[in-house]
Design a protein that fits this description.
The chain is mostly helical and 183 residues long. The chain has 6 helices and 2 strands, in the order ααααββαα. The protein is 61% helix and 2% strand.
């Protein structure tokens, strides 16, 4: 748990980082656009659907919630006992929290009309009910997945950049839907 002073220091660090390293921010934004372009070319998400309606999806979300709750209980263990599997499970909790944020936005979107545009899932929203300085919503929750992944890579000496480039190049050469009939 951080103190208000430590929170302010972290906020100031993040703002300064963005001013000093805008090219790194631009690289991540470019990479996201490149990934979605390749994904669409390969048949994954040819169209954007703003609301999942398959009941099977929601059963899986319930399963993921149970995993989330069990992994959250692991946070009581000292972090120096955490191995790579535990870190991957922490990424799974961030995935669940992103799904939860998406579903909260659906609930706020007047019945969750699936024809709503992309602003239904904003990059960030700020809630005065909690910490007014904390970015909240699906975008910031999804960024937590990346933060955990980069932490994993740094901790376990995974060369994130070169592996990303290698895997991306490999995927570009794969057949539509990676050889499957459907997603």
């Amino acid at each position: 748990m951080t103190t208000p002073h430590e929170d302010e220091e972290l906020t100031n660090w993040a703002e300064a980082y963005l001013r000093v390293h805008p090219s790194e921010v631009a690289v991540l934004d470019h990479l996201a656009k490149k990934c979605v372009t390749v994904s669409r070319r390969k048949g994954f998400g040819d169209t954007d659907v703003w609301r999942d309606t398959d009941p099977e999806i929601f059963k899986i979300v319930e399963d993921l919630k149970r995993v989330h709750d069990r992994v959250e209980a692991l946070r009581d263990y000292p972090s120096d006992e955490a191995g790579p599997v535990r870190y991957m499970l922490l990424i799974a909790t961030e995935c669940y929290e992103t799904i939860e944020a998406i579903m909260e936005h659906w609930a706020l979107a007047d019945g969750g009309d699936p024809s709503l545009p992309s602003d239904l899932v904003p990059a960030a929203s700020f809630s005065l009910a909690r910490n007014p300085n904390k970015p909240e919503g699906p975008g910031p929750e999804a960024v937590d997945i990346l933060i955990r992944w980069f932490d994993y890579c740094g901790r376990f000496n995974v060369p994130a950049g070169s592996l990303m480039a290698t895997k991306h190049a490999y995927n570009m050469g794969r057949p539509r839907l990676h050889g499957r009939e459907s997603v």
